[in-house]
Amino acid sequence: MGKTIDLNSDMGEAFGAYRLGQDRELMNYVTSANIACGFHAGDPRVMEETVALAREKGVGVGAHPGFPDLVGFGRREMRLSEAELRSDLIYQMAALDGFCRTVGMKLQHVKLHGALYNMAVSDENLAQAVVRAVRDYDRDLILVASPGSAMIKAGEKLGLPVANEVFADRAYNPDGTLVSRRVPGAVLHDPAEVAGRALEMVREGWVKAVDGSRLPLKADTICVHGDTPGAADLARQIRRLLEGNGVRVRRLRP
Amino acid sequence: MGKTIDLNSDMGEAFGAYRLGQDRELMNYVTSANIACGFHAGDPRVMEETVALAREKGVGVGAHPGFPDLVGFGRREMRLSEAELRSDLIYQMAALDGFCRTVGMKLQHVKLHGALYNMAVSDENLAQAVVRAVRDYDRDLILVASPGSAMIKAGEKLGLPVANEVFADRAYNPDGTLVSRRVPGAVLHDPAEVAGRALEMVREGWVKAVDGSRLPLKADTICVHGDTPGAADLARQIRRLLEGNGVRVRRLRP
Amino acid sequence: MGKTIDLNSDMGEAFGAYRLGQDRELMNYVTSANIACGFHAGDPRVMEETVALAREKGVGVGAHPGFPDLVGFGRREMRLSEAELRSDLIYQMAALDGFCRTVGMKLQHVKLHGALYNMAVSDENLAQAVVRAVRDYDRDLILVASPGSAMIKAGEKLGLPVANEVFADRAYNPDGTLVSRRVPGAVLHDPAEVAGRALEMVREGWVKAVDGSRLPLKADTICVHGDTPGAADLARQIRRLLEGNGVRVRRLRP
Amino acid sequence: MGKTIDLNSDMGEAFGAYRLGQDRELMNYVTSANIACGFHAGDPRVMEETVALAREKGVGVGAHPGFPDLVGFGRREMRLSEAELRSDLIYQMAALDGFCRTVGMKLQHVKLHGALYNMAVSDENLAQAVVRAVRDYDRDLILVASPGSAMIKAGEKLGLPVANEVFADRAYNPDGTLVSRRVPGAVLHDPAEVAGRALEMVREGWVKAVDGSRLPLKADTICVHGDTPGAADLARQIRRLLEGNGVRVRRLRP
To answer: Which of A103, C140, D153, D184 would you label with C67, given CA atoms 20 to 30 Å apart?
Structure first.
């Protein structure tokens, strides 16, 4: 019987006069969209348009909340209190949910952005605070995070649905963490190679780590970066290879 | 048989380290709270705390959206496109609604803030754009606006519930518009006089205009300003006088 | 004896992760840069880098202040009090001036951005408020504005140096105002035609208006739009044609 | 011969409709004002008014730059790159300097705000980045910081004038660091006691630490908190006691 996988991408990262990403093209190939919520990127108009586009293409909509740091694009660590973080998350999820509601959709998932995502990978307290905020807002939302991360553990512990996210274009350490972007070879650029890794991850359940060892990796969704040149083409190739090999590509929750 | 009236006040206008208003005291006397949504005032933490306070006191929660102009407190006119305004409104209503949802409440009403309110009093296109945005988000929301305004007319035309709002502490022109704040005597400060006018408005259905004439005025809710010294005391006196005269004070939608 | 002209372009309009314009290429052809100051566009890092680039290329630096409306890119009208506008202008000019100071440059000019520019073209009170703010900050700054505008008049009246700005890629009405962008043909796209008009404006002192009449037009600087595809190429062609015909292209103040 | 000391206080921390602090009263007693620059607090209008007030009272003006985090009032740690921090600092110093310039004043000093101050107390790289940015902007500016901090050391190393700041209303550990606000007794509230400690610090050159030991402490300026009730009265008492005991209270640079 065939395997199933979701393809997700960050979208709606434009802001006012500023364009970013290739949402329109990417929406043809991915099945879930992580939409920025106005704090690190996105503005209300962009959010509404991106939700409309997702609906048109049948793509699942997820909130992509980040730190309140537009100029830093949410990529700079900030030390928020748990209460501040909670309210910031609910605000962002709900604002995006409002645009879903006006077009008859439901929010499908939540995926943290940038520095917040990275901090919550390993910080258990932060991860649990995130899970509580998401759960208190809507206990059906799926938390998308790296396999083995503090977020996945917190989600499982506190009863929130989770989806394990893998990166086909990133090199992995033997312990399952990503090789730092500062290390040469950390990011893979050859579309065929990336697509091949995606297929391997889905079909075999493991990926070859940088030391050549086989790293078992649970994969519910593959992240496709949308801010690189050729992102749409890469997404197309990944999807084609997956489907050509009998993998069913569909959103996390139909 | 007794009359019924709602008392509303703007709340949740603090921001970060900045305090404003007397929410905690006012919540004892008013029945509906117009809560700022983060654009002209309010931040996510303040919003969550204000909703929690409203729930504790049994006060109805309304969105109080404004222009994206924190430094101007939403009091400066801005020319937004209809699409921009629509998205800004949905974003703000939904964000506040999210905090209601986490405590099991439903958003009761919407009241525009500041310059946006003032512009929509007389601008029909703007008023209709507002009504469409509110209705598309949630057709059960009650639009609070001045009797006879373009907003009330647009609400009635487009099928959105409306509530007529009167100001017991403001002088009225014979045509039903408010006397400009720049005119001496435009704002009444004596609590007993203000309370008396509130009772008159509710029981008689009219108010004495600046020229001495009787101005018929439909009143579903009375606005109590929360940012003046003595606001809570004024609200207390108004409520006491109303209830002492057989008027039932309760929120727009129980 | 040869004519002299300045070529100016809006620059430094990136923000955080968002890129905009072709500053690096344009700096090779224009002689004055209007640099955004962080309100409608630009952030401190972008400002510092853009000033450094201007210095490297010998380009004159001007402040390009706008309304505090990043999401609207300063293109939406806002009603500020004169005091608010004054402080907003001084803040923006001085912030940019700081980056000039650290590399041993002096601010050369000021050109308003977007809706603020458009409002000050015809609003005398606004124009005089702008001139007073600029003059109080630095009475040597050159105000760049459309010939015949309220800004030029206010500058001349209040003793601030002015420079008349013309647009070689825009159609002119016989009264000297620009044809609205909503009218077909309002913006010229053919580089050769635009360059030809630029030369005509500089050498002849007039431009052919939409009705075919000759419109006398004082030109101290020609605006080259930087946010259109091919902007750098257009600037190159304009400069080449001007210099090929004996016009000296140099910054407003050497 | 008499001792000399400066009294400094954070000012200009209002924002738009939000008031904070007691600037007008405090300006009668302190000799240096650390004025917020629009990132964590303050807006251009507030800055211009606060500079005007300082000039009227003969108070020295310093920049009080903070993180770009208005909602967090600059009290939350943020991880900026050195280049980002540098540009943010120059932007803020220069913007405030612009208001000084329009009234014929010169910026006297710089004191970091909130989390940025706290981080730069012990982080040498951060402290040196701060000093380089200040020095590149204006090598005459005085950096105000805690005695023994990485900032004072960086200032001395890189040739920037420094002023040692002490806190008369805070308990000190024997190693010269402040007792954490979370510890009972960390903040002293009795005006007479605080004034007495101020006198002791200035006249004797030491302060009694929490363990009773005498802590030698170099004091060029005493910080008077402006955001507590009774701040102006406290400043008045400190100044009176100091002057009554022959200490000359005057700004860092006359």
So the answer is: C140
